[in-house]
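Journal club side-thread
Mid-discussion, someone asked how the predicted structure for our own chain would compare to the paper's figures. Pasting it here so we can look after the session.
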Amino acid sequence: MRVAQQEGGTQIGQVGQVFRVVGHDGPRLATQQDIEHINRGFPTDESGTSFQQPSTDDYVMLSVDDARTESSGLDIQLRVDSTLASQTDFVQVLEEAAALWESLISDDVTVVLGISMRPDQPFIAGATSFVNTFEYTSTIASMRADASPEEQAILNAMPDVLALDYGRRNYDTNTMYNQNMVIGITATFANWYALGADDFNDNPISVNAEAGIVLNADLTWDLDRSDGFQGDADAYFTMVHEIGHTLGFSSGAENNGFPSMLDVFRFAALDNPENPDSLADANTVLRQMEIGVEAQLDTFGLFPGLEAEYRFSTGISTGITAGDDRQASHWKDNVLLGLQGNLGVMDPTFDPSATDFNNVISSVDLLAFSLIGWDIDLSALTARSEE
């Protein structure tokens, strides 16, 4: 699959331009997130390079054959570029991060990730996944069908028509926008696989990689988490975090786009009148998608050991221009919550003093991934949360 140029042949350069993803039906509008991905160096033409990988020739598949095979449980296959392939210690950390996710998720799904290391990046690391937009009603039905017994009550309480509160759709105006009937919902390819799908609109999926992860080559990476944190960034935490994004931890609140699967559970927080008082309210309240307005995952007391309400970040995709200055596709930064430890690996920042490296993926992380379709032993994670 390739990302094509804008309709008419010019390169995509601004929000709202129309472009096509080869292999998908119909055009789509470029979002701010699309533009940022392109500006970070992902190709925008269809002349032989995929959206996630500069080229297949420059990548090395680690430990597995190129051919996709049936797996037992989650199988994360890594394709690394030549820069990373020569760094055996770094490669080992990448494999350990993938193995951690594989040990916790039992879906028979294969996910291929293209990983590259590049200089002059404006971030520590960034993940970009192939995504598609699906009809909401059929997707929520698939989520219910895939739910574990523990999740059935909360999935059954989700509405058949999802209502969203975007508030000020344009951040520099007072224009209000409430979308009261959502017909589409987005998912990464990997997340879609978790629901048992292997095609889009009866079109077989054929990609070199479901997602790409870019690591900043200019940083000093800490590769040994056993001796305390040293350097600019922790490779293990970063890789576990970025894989989490590829598996579906994302939010449409960042770019005023369609809601993600996780946004189905993005409720208003604190004294907001849309904050549900009960599970029954979850069927009618607006999902909170407005930048800068507090939002949370509410467990409604259904999961022993996880009775709290878990806050999300509220910033936009550029991260530092609105909301709480953290991208909405994360938990709320523990520093902003006044907590000593982070809510999980999907915290937007790395703080070694707030990270439990024995359980870097927290029970709250796992609950979120389970709700969006991944098969996870919820009885084990709630027991762990009570330790």
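Post-session note: Residues 166 and 289 are 5 Å apart (CA to CA).
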